[in-house]
Amino acid sequence: MPGKWTVPGGKLYQEDYINKPVDTTSNQWYNICENLVEREILEETGLKVKGVKYIASLVFVRPDGIPTLVISLAAHYDSGEVLLCKDLTDHAWVSLEEAKNYDLIDGIYHELEMVNNHIKGQDLGLWKKNLSSKNI
Prior knowledge:
- By secondary structure, the protein is an alpha+beta fold.
- 22% of the residues lie in helices and 20% in strands.
- Strand 1 and strand 2 form a beta hairpin.
- It is globular and about 50 Å long.
- It starts with 31 loop residues before the first helix and ends in a 17-residue tail after the last helix.
């Protein structure tokens, strides 16, 4: 969604786990999504994060007909200074209220609300369409 604001993200590749030691006798790997988030955020922003938590998931169908699963995760800042990769053009640190002034990808504002609630010690709950608020 070019031109829209969002959060760092990326794709899972077989190389993200296949060359790592397995975690079970059944050739399974744990914490792959958490490791992926840490890698993608570091690659895209130069920031290190920790404490990755699940937020929500969604599926969309790409223009070529392929369904895509998106797993949204959040993490705490650990260290580093923002240094954007060549594919990104800008960044902003904003409050939840300020985020309303950005042209965000569909659904992301509610995910930010969920993270904000989690930071305040409230239950994340499930993503749901909020018909009473501005569709951001």
